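Hey team,

Filing this mostly as a record. A colleague (T.K.) asked me to run one chain through the structure pipeline before their review meeting, and I want the input and output archived in the tracker in case anyone asks later how it was produced. No errors, nothing strange. Just documentation.

Input sequence:
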Amino acid sequence: MNNGLSRESIKYVAAAAMLINHIGLIFLPDGTLLQEIFVAVGYFTAITQLYFLTEGFYYTRSRKKYLQRLVLLGLVSQIPFSMAFAKNGILEFRNLNMGITLTLCFCMIWVMETEPRQNVQSIIVLGILLVSWLCDWGIMAPVYTLLFVRARRAADRQAKTRKAFGIAVLSFGVICFLTHVETLDAVRSFGYALLDMAGMAAAAVCLLHFYSGRRMKSAGRIRDGFRKWFFYAFYPGHLLILGLIRIWLAGH
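Output structure:
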């Protein structure tokens, strides 16, 4: 559709949803309905990032520079990430941040598009899947990326993309249910899983039905540069601020 939300508009929504998710995870009591709502809102973000990452791989003018930006994002974000999500003290390594996850997913697409030997391609992709276990959204992120890549290659691309989102939402719901049922009863776990699915489903609806497929109209080099770098700066920036607030609150 030509008249709809631009890529940047959806990214701003995703950034806000991420912030809400992280506030819930860091500051709200575990297991409460309010925390679950905050966290579920943020599930809009990861699937949106992966969709745009896949799209960006094919549209970028320089895949090398795109990859360099992702690597830089991952490196810069690790300390703020470890600060924000530490349970005790100032820093606590829990896993690698989403910037590194996106880097791995981008590399996986690159291998799939450039490595002609199927056996070599499969080995590298499997290796990336295994390494992603150490990352935020590990294993799920590269699997969802695979779904988007295969949908893009299909003749009936739109139908396959809808199917990819459907598989992602349903599988995520199952994972969330199995996670919740470890500490909660089945009925409450099912309700929370549905709530978690809603955040990701909202992203699917937004991208499938309201995304225009275009960038925001140019507003000059300065504003365009701000839009471009805002999304790279927001991730480590908001984690650093939340981490500092968490440390301050812990000391009072």
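Quick notes for T.K.: The mean pLDDT is 93. Residues 7-241 form one domain.
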